[in-house]
Amino acid sequence: MINIKSVGLREIQIPLKEPFQISSGVETDRRILLLEITDVDGVSVWSECVAGAVPNYSPEAIDTAWVAIKEWISPLVIGREFDSPTEVSLALDHAIRGNHMAKAAVEMGVWALTAQRAGTPLSGVLGGSRDKVGTGISIGIQDSPEALGRKASEAVEAGYQKIKVKVKPGKDLEYVAAARDAIGDHDLMVDANNSYTLDDVPVLKQFDRFGLIMIEQPLAWDDVYRHSHLQKLLTTPICLDESITSVEKAREMIELGSGRVINIKPGRVGGFAEAIAIHDLAASVGIPVWCGGMLESGVGRAYNVALASLPNFTLPGDISPSSRYWEQDIVSPEWTMNAKGYVVVPTSPGLGVEVDVGRVDQLTVRKAEGGQ
Ligand code: OSB
Ligand code: MG
């Protein structure tokens, strides 16, 4: 039984070790919305809303999520009894259109609360089967092909199993060529964050010569249909990220042949129930999935690691260790990766990491109570 008493919101700000640039913008200080969800028995968990400072990845941003969680989502869950996290997911889905990242922060927290109460690791309640998850790195757009080549080879040195490089028109073929030269036949992919159109087919076809394991979201952020045309013209598998916002979108992708791989971010799809549905659908048709990242703190990372332990997450996720992003994370122990590029899935109850509340307090810039 789930019976939530309060949803505390707070915004923290942490400087990223280095700016992270994608086709549509750059992030230097990460503004992060954390929730502290407490039930009527006093059991409490932390969760993270992955929305960014501006809506340049999806239509959501931290400020819209703040309002959505405080004003609309919290009142739907506080003081009401639910039998399972899936019931919470259905209730939120029924009452609120869009606002997936806001809903996910609450819904995922409820899964962690369920795990915490049962004395089970989060991966266990999700149906995870791996004791460690393979990790890749996502390298932002660099100033020169040489700089990218250096970063890519350092990442291979560090053990990352998959190297993903961000591209955009004009910062593409030369950059990818440099990365490929730097890392030999190591697994390499690109992420365009929807910076191309079908007019760019001549350029996009040239990506085929680099032996990439996939090209992520080349066309519009909400497009499925046009990707089906593009996939027919490329030998490189297309992986959809932004445009897979639900299991129904995943079904469209599969039926249209718009891609051959799916990046699952639980925040983007509204939570774990939907993420698991996409995972299961993809598994049933032989489409591999991997867990994407949104520059999460150690809290959001705990949720991603747990999800990535499910069986069809057969490709390395964007689940870098804490030290890739932060001088100091807000959890202990911090997330680490071994020399073979694996992050260990925690076996202790709930998230498997402790939140350093003192540090969170220091980083907090605003607080509120949901539903008030
Ligand atoms: O497209 O996968 C993306 C970060 C912010 C917004 C969108 C994306 C990303 C990443 C970062 O690629 C992955 C990570 O968290 O390391
Ligand atoms: Mg992406």
Structure description:
By secondary structure, the chain is an alpha/beta fold. The longest helix is centred in the first third of the chain and has 19 residues, at 100-118. It folds into two domains: 2-119 and 354-369, Enolase-like, N-terminal domain (Enolase-like, domain 1), CATH 3.30.390; 125-344, Alpha-Beta Barrel (TIM Barrel), CATH 3.20.20.120. The model has no long low-confidence stretch (mean pLDDT 97). It has helices spanning 62-77, 85-95, 100-118, 122-126, 145-158, 173-183, 201-206, 225-233, 247-256, 272-284, 298-308, 322-325, 357-363, and strands spanning 2-22, 25-39, 44-49, 81-82, 132-134, 136-139, 162-166, 188-191, 214-216, 238-240, 261-264, 289-291, 331-332, 342-344, 354-355, 364-369. The structure holds 2-succinylbenzoate and magnesium ion. 2-succinylbenzoate binds next to loops.
Short description:
By secondary structure, the protein is of the alpha/beta class. It is about 35% helix and about 25% strand.
Rg over CA atoms: 20 Å
| H-E order | EEEHEHHHEEHEHEHEHEHEHEHHEEEHE
Number of helices: 13
The CATH topology name of the largest domain reads TIM Barrel
Helix and strand composition category: alpha/beta
- Quaternary state reads single chain
- Distance N to C terminus: 24 Å
CATH superfamily of the largest domain: Enolase-like C-terminal domain
Pick out the low-confidence regions. none
User: Main β-sheet, in a few words?
Assistant: 7 strands, parallel
Q: Which small-molecule species are bound to the chains here?
A: 2-succinylbenzoate, magnesium ion
Query: Class of the largest domain, according to the CATH hierarchy?
Result: Alpha Beta
Task: Give the overall average pLDDT.
Answer: 97
